[in-house]
Amino acid sequence: MKVTVCRKEHFNAAHRLYNQEWNDERNDEVFGKCNLPNYHGHNYDLIVKVTGEIDPRTGFVMDTKVLKDIIREHIIEKFDHHNLNLDVEEFRTLNPTAENIAVISWDILRKKIPVSLELKVVLFETERNFVEYTGE
Ligand code: NI
User: Fold this and answer.
1) Ligand 1 centroid vs 36 CA: distance in angstroms?
2) What is the pTM of this model?
3) What is the Å distance from ligand 1's center to 110 Cα?
4) Cα 52 to ligand 1 centre (Å)
5) Is 6 annotated as catalytic?
6) Each residue of 105-136: pLDDT tens digit?
7) Which domain holds residue 62?
């Protein structure tokens, strides 16, 4: 009997989407306004889902307080109110798209969450655009 525990967190961050190997025209064509040189911001919602068996001693799959603290310490502190391209090492050479932010977040969290639990992240970049990653 597996149950999924979900925690939603929030951060604001700036980014710019572009490919250094392309000229301005090609970048404009592919990324449009997301390529504007002075960056723009998003209000991101990050939903972290952990799936596993209920521990009969606690009744928890994972203590949500512990999950919350892990997300805040390792993801929110790193991304919130930062410029992802300039301030976050992982995005120095990786385009900070929603897809890549989800993958980087998953990679960081996977190292902090017990291996017995399955992990999935859902990242909302806008209310209507979101991505999911399960490490596959
Ligand atoms: Ni954007």
Assistant:
1) 10
2) 0.96
3) 25
4) 34
5) no
6) 999 999 999 999 999 999 999 999 999 999 99
7) 2-133
What is d(CA 29, CA 7) in angstroms, rounded to the nearest whole number? 37
Q: Which of 42, 81, 89, 90 is catalytic?
A: 81
Q: Please give the C-alpha separations between residue 44 and each of 101, 102, 113, 123, in angstroms, as whole numbers.
A: 10, 11, 22, 7
| Domains held by the chain: number | 1
Q: From the candidates 21, 34, 74, 136, which is the catalytic residue?
A: 34
Q: How far is the CA of 16 from the centre of ligand 1 (A)?
A: 6
pLDDT tens, residue by residue, 70-109: 999 999 999 999 999 999 999 999 999 999 999 999 999 9
Tell me, in angstroms, the distance from the centre of ligand 1 to residue 97's CA: 7
Catalytic choice (9, 15, 42, 125): 125
With a pLDDT cut of 90, the percent of the chain lying above it is 100
What CATH number is given to the structural domain containing 127?
A: 3.30.479.10
CA dihedral 96, 105, 49, 118 (to 10 degrees): 130
- Taking the C-alpha atoms of residue 50 and residue 33, their distance in angstroms, rounded to an integer, is 35
CA 62 → CA 35, 56, 123, distances in Å?
A: 40, 12, 21
